[in-house]
User: What shape does this take?
Amino acid sequence: MEDIILTALTSDDREQFILDNQEAFNYGALEEFGCSDDHFEEEGEIISRATIEKSIDSGEAYRIMLGTEKVGGVVIKVDGDKGDLDLLFVSPKAHSKGIGYAAWCAVEKLHPEVRVWETVTPYFEKRNIHFYVNRCGFHIVEFFNSHHPNPNDPDMSEQIDEQFPDGMFRFEKRIIKENQ
Assistant: This one.
């Protein structure tokens, strides 16, 4: 999808970015569990405002644009040849149109120096698991749960215990550059 571009998040769009992110994450949980979902991080939200703000403030935040329409967002962190996909969301109205994949390709082009990308997603997010593994080429490399917490992220261990007691998958994508 060639019409997809990433534009740096602006301060005047920050609030809508947060709301759009929450809408997209809630959609996935409600699609899986219905109205009885108990995976909310804060009242009525799968992902809290504080979590999104922390992500934006500590990373690079971009709007996913389809022409002039805002259809999602992404937050990444890059440290040398390592990258972390912190947040990626597409508006539920724009699902299944190749937007997420096109946005991911744009992220990889934005940071060609990154050799290893990582991300995590809750065990129940079947759409995410399909997207990362089958579309973007990630591999599931670890399963964090109460018996195997993330040693590098105590906040995630607490989140697993409280919000996602059945665990989270860690994904990794290793990028092999030709002529290396």
The helical segments are 14-33, 49-58, 99-110, 126-135, 154-162.
